[in-house]
């Protein structure tokens, strides 16, 4: 990722990062980190929402796909991007998703 010219994350990922904070200062650290590395937050669009709802319908019962992960996957697919994640379990079932797994 460090070598990529442009770095993106879904609005869902952004919100999940902020949600993990328990102090305002931690929110600032998250925001400062994302800004310093030049991350661009991709918005939730109608197409992303629609695709995510289809993923939830198709994969929640069989693979325990949650709505947040569905939004993240749909954001990557709708923007024709590779999703880098350490969470292979939930994402691997989505056929059209280009997935790159990493170990933290």
Textual characterization of the structure:
This protein has helices at 11-19, 24-36, 46-63, 67-78, 88-91; strands at 7-10, 39-42, 82-85, 98-101. The protein is an alpha/beta fold and 104 residues long. Strand 3, helix 5 (88-91) and strand 4 (98-101) form a beta-alpha-beta unit. Helix 3 (46-63) crosses helix 4. It is globular. The protein starts with 6 loop residues before the first strand and ends with a strand.
What characteristics describe this protein?
Rossmann fold, single chain, 104 residues, globular, two-stranded parallel ribbon
Q: What's the overall average pLDDT, rounded? A: 93
CATH topology label: Rossmann fold
Shape: globular
Radius of gyration: 14 Å
CATH homology group: 5'-nuclease
Point out poorly predicted stretches.
none
Strand composition percent = 15-25%
How many beta-strand runs? Answer: 4
Order of helices and strands: EHHEHHEHE
**Between the first and last Cα atoms, what is the distance in angstroms?**
13 Å
CATH architecture: 3-Layer(aba) Sandwich
Instruction: Indicate the multimeric state.
Output: single chain
The CATH C-level name is Alpha Beta
